[in-house]
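ingest -> validate -> predict -> emit
validate: passed (alphabet ok, no gaps, 228 aa)
predict: started
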Amino acid sequence: MGEFLKITECVNGRALRLFLRGRETLSTEFLVTSLVVVLAPGTGVIYTVSTGLFLGWRASIAAAIGCTSGIIPHLLASSLGLAAIFHASALAFQTLKFVGVAYLLYLAWTMWRETGSIKFEDSSKEKSAQQIIFRGFLINILNPKLSIFFLAFLPQFVPIDSTAPILQMFMLSTVFMAMTLLIFIAYGAFAHAVRSCVTNSPGSVRWAQRTFAVIFATLGGKLAMAEQ
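emit:
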């Protein structure tokens, strides 16, 4: 019995230390910095806003889920140290980068080609949601700069004397991912709220679609110029 109590106290003590270490990791600096990073308009934000504007709030939630899921592999790679491969290998970085550029240009062309009208179709809503999620996933998974960003960003908030750095990286990644999902959903909800102001005017629809097309093309060009 005494041995059992010792083991229990040891386990509880370790759990308490991990909990306290987790609180230290989730500092105000990390939360504020993450908030600023997530709020900054990027490819995922533009995709979520355009989806909410043209397809409604349910579609914008699907877009937010897709974009958030697209950063999971980057966060895992950073936590496990795999992102260093992109930093060290020019071929791996350039290959993934230009696939991402091609996909952004494809989205720009699709958006530009469909200018002038918005079609509201009810056919296969589940399939449509899957397509939206998949597009959002591809937008972020094909951006190698994200892996390098997280590799440089997350370790700053892990204490040097940490006994479980990978666990703390996973904790930071989970919080960052949750913030991304919630803020992207908020962006989509805002886009849906102003949707009627745009969709009631064919001229506004054409202008908005072409604007988003140009933004996607610009983001593709920016990614093409990115260096390791």
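Residues 29-224 form one domain.
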